[in-house]
Amino acid sequence: MVQNSALHDSLYNSYILFQEKTLFNRRFKQELVNTLIDKRIGNPAYEVVKVGESFEGRPIHYLKTGTGPRKILLWTQMHGDEATATMACFDILNFLEAENDEFDEVRKLILAETTLYFVPMLNPDGAERFQRRNAQNIDINRDALQLQAPESRILKELQQTLQPEFGFNLHDKNPRYSVGNTSKLATISFLATAYDQERNVNAVREKAIQVIVGMNRMLQNYIPDAVGRWNEDHEPRAFGDNIQKWGTTLILIESGGYVGDPEKQYIRKLNFMSIITALQSIADNSYAQEGREDYYKLPENSRYIFDFLIRNATVTEDGKSYQTDLGIDRAEVNYDNATKFFYKSKIEDYGDLSIYFGSEEFDATGYTLEKGKALSVSYSEISQLDKFDPWELLKEGYTYIKTDLTSEGIFFTNLPLHILMDKSAPTSAPTFEDIPTFILTKNGVVKFAVVNGFLYDLSGNPPTFYNGIAE
Predict the structure, then answer these.
(1) pTM score, two decimals?
(2) I want to staple 328 with a disulfide (CB 3.0 to 4.6 A). Which of 107, 207, 399, 453 is the partner?
(3) Quick one: CA torsion of 61, 15, 465, 386, rounded to 10 degrees?
(4) Stretch 201-220: mean pLDDT, rounded?
(5) Under 8 Å CB-to-CB from 393, ≥6 apart: which residues?
(6) Across 303-395, where does the E strand assignment appear?
(7) Mean pLDDT over residues 343-360, rounded?
């Protein structure tokens, strides 16, 4: 057997060979997943089983592969907008199907010692809308007791009938969670879910802790100090907690944030690495050599990171000046039938944020935060705004364009400007819970502009892409 460290490095460097190329962003529909399932029908390595239908009648399947005695159930997208592990699971299937390479020994071990049941999209109705909840607006992961959603009933029936030894509950989480109270994003977080309020550890939960220790050790080579532990408080309605109680060793993997990876393609790779590492440790029983100590050393997730943090800006209001920090987050807004997104930013906190961090930061010491000017125009269509040189407008202190157009909601613009349609121009600089659009001046000269939470240095060249907004 290849030593683990060498295997991990080889897997890491060879990942591109197994990556499912048809999945390249998170906003895919079940139709694409079904295509990847259908192409495996008839392959003797698989058993493809329809296990039920979603509330809106979409089929839900599992793919079974492997012939070993240790049953493992893996499910993804029980929250419809949490698709990172769905992509990774098809990468894993591609890996298991390959042959005649340096990984033959490990894949043969996994397939001989385990039987894997992949449910690659438990909530297809939510995925259709790229939303957390299902078509009933039920959070499936809070429906393990009442079972009001058909998707919930499917998952419980799978656990009860298959009686898997291990379960992998695969999620995405808010990309701004930090590792403890540090500046490190919690790119991956693990949890051996608690089956009772006292968070006791029995033999079932112990195995989850041991498998997580091995996955974390591997990940530290690629994302040092960026692995967290999810809050251990028992949630009596949650599937993870209940499946642990029902006798299946349950491992929760949460995919968080990584700077420069908005589509989570690197985090997808880390999921691939983590799950392969876990499957190998189960197949060869090496996880049993692990203790609890390293699991409890993992810092719990916390919320100490904003997408963008501006420090020490001076604000003048009613003739009085003070300094403030601005914690800005950028929310994804779906459009084009939830296949694409744009950012709508918001000032999430305001005041002394000295204990917090930003994935991006700007020290505004010596700069004054001011309301940008608004240019009023009368146009019949938004495309006419292309007549402007937006960079020159920003340099002159204009951040808003006030139009006579009517809006049907908020949308994005590729201009670095804040387009006002049904709204009046603001009378003061933005503050807590506003969209962060303003200018930063020094000695009365405009030096920087912030539009929709994105900073533009007006002394440099215009960027190639903007993140404006229209409302």
Answers:
(1) 0.95
(2) 453
(3) -50
(4) 98
(5) 375, 417
(6) 305-317, 320-335, 340-351, 357-363, 368-370, 373-376
(7) 98
